[in-house]
């Protein structure tokens, strides 16, 4: 409502609360999860020994939709989520259609036989969705087979998420 320029109204200073809220919203958007799922993940992370912030990001990164994205089978988190919901993904040879499914180290995730000929998976097989950087070290990916394995829990440094997790923890700790 106010014009820019020298005589426009000055900007309000960001409150501490606003800074933390925006950081939490940014993290939520990167995983496309609801506030409730985020709060639950925080509660689980709080019970882990060590840094709550790192535990939170690792907790979110072990979601099935996030790993489908990181492996290069999907191009966006939304596409990854839809692939899971539409029943194209199997974990240890069993269909899983919950994007929030927590993958455990050693689990093998693959595209189901019946879905492999569909166009998005053809593109993925040719590496069309592969992330710009390299595939994270905690995943062992075989795009030809449209499958990957979670070798171990990820480290915070390996997770390509832009977030100051300390601010998120401070938001929930209030």
TrEMBL record:
Q: Give the matching PROSITE patterns.
A: RIBOSOMAL_S4, S4
Q: Which GO terms describe its biological process?
A: ribosomal small subunit biogenesis; translation
Q: What SUPFAM superfamilies does the record tag this protein with?
A: Alpha-L RNA-binding motif (SSF55174)
Write the protein's name. Small ribosomal subunit protein uS4
Species for this entry: Streptomyces benahoarensis
Cellular component (GO) terms are: small ribosomal subunit
- Give a yes or no for keyword DNA damage in this entry: no
PANTHER family, alphabetized: 30S 40S RIBOSOMAL PROTEIN, SMALL RIBOSOMAL SUBUNIT PROTEIN US4M
Recorded hits in CDD domains, A to Z, give: S4
GO molecular function terms attached to this record: rRNA binding; structural constituent of ribosome
The residues covered by the Small ribosomal subunit protein uS4 N-terminal domain are 1-61
Q: Which residues form the RNA-binding S4 domain?
A: 62-126
The record's comment on protein family reads: Belongs to the universal ribosomal protein uS4 family.
Q: Highest lineage ranks of the organism?
A: Bacteria, Bacillati, Actinomycetota, Actinomycetes, Kitasatosporales
